[in-house]
Design brief:
The complex is a heterodimer.
Chain A: E1 3-5, E2 10-14, E3 19-21, E4 24-26, E5 33-38, E6 44-50, E7 56-58, E8 64-68, E9 73-78, E10 87-94, E11 99-101, E12 105-110
Parallel strand pairs in A: 2-12
Antiparallel strand pairs in A: 1-4, 3-9, 5-6, 5-10, 7-8, 8-9, 10-11, 10-12
Chain B: E1 5-7, E2 10-13, E3 19-24, E4 31-38, E5 42-50, E6 53-56, E7 65-69, E8 75-79, E9 88-95, E10 104-105, E11 109-113
Parallel strand pairs in B: 2-11
Antiparallel strand pairs in B: 1-3, 3-8, 4-5, 4-9, 5-6, 7-8, 9-10, 9-11
Classes of the chains: A mainly beta, B mainly beta.
Chain lengths: ~110, ~110
């Protein structure tokens, strides 16, 4: 079985500050990990994914994530956030047939 | 090209009525998924189609929920005798298949049961 834990339901941050959104997972199959973003009143959009290879994965909009097998983590980072990054972020792990999502982290960027 | 589309975008229905939600996946995508997004529950998997068959229906919450896919394309999610706890955003996604394939999500249908 697969599960995803996003430890923070909300992360407030000031514009241009760095941010880390935490994600821990468990999986009984090969580990494929994803981060999706959902802007207000929109659908989900893929930010980045880890399938294999380099543990540091770069995605769109300046985001990156690092896969850490020993800590079963896949934290999302951005060195300098913008107001436009305000959105909900979902971490997900792939199971046999579908994705299991975490409950999401709301990133609130203020000026 | 066109993304995943869903209709209607909003649906308000009375408790006890049946509703049908439609999903048009990206052309050529063999895999199709339904999820439900509600406050406090996050994103819950409902059902997965590969072609017209549904090898995984494990997320359907009750026998009031059913789904079908025809022609390897359009899918319909039907909820019979709707209850207030069915109120949620229903999201559809499609992909080329394979465990690493990106799932492309539609904008969702917001269902409100009064």
């Amino acid at each position: 079985a697969q599960s995803v834990t996003q430890l923070d339901s909300q992360v407030p941050v000031f514009e241009e500050a760095p941010v880390e959104l935490r994600c821990n997972y468990s999986s009984s199959v090969s580990v494929y990990l994803f981060w999706y973003v959902q802007y207000p009143n929109q659908g989900l959009q893929l930010l980045l994914k880890y399938l294999s290879g380099s543990t540091l994965v770069k995605g769109i909009n300046g985001f990156e994530a690092e896969f850490n097998k020993s800590q079963t983590s896949f934290h999302l980072r951005k060195p300098s956030v913008h107001i436009s990054d305000t959105a909900e972020y979902f971490c997900a792990v792939r199971g046999y047939s579908t994705l299991t999502f975490g409950k999401g982290t709301m990133l609130l960027v203020s000026p | 090209g066109a993304g995943v589309s869903q209709s209607p975008s909003n649906k308000v229905t009375e408790k006890g009525k049946d509703v049908e939600l439609r999903c048009d996946p990206i052309s050529g995508h063999t895999a199709l998924y339904w999820y439900r997004q509600s406050l406090g529950q996050g994103l819950e998997f409902l059902i997965y189609f590969q072609g017209n068959s549904a090898p995984d229906k494990s997320g359907l919450p009750s026998d009031r929920f059913s789904a079908e896919r025809t022609g390897g394309s359009v899918s319909t999610l039907t909820i019979q005798r709707t209850q207030q706890e069915d109120s949620a955003v229903y999201l559809c996604a499609s992909s080329l298949g394979g465990q690493g394939a990106e799932q492309y999500f539609g904008p969702g249908t917001r269902l409100t049961v009064t």
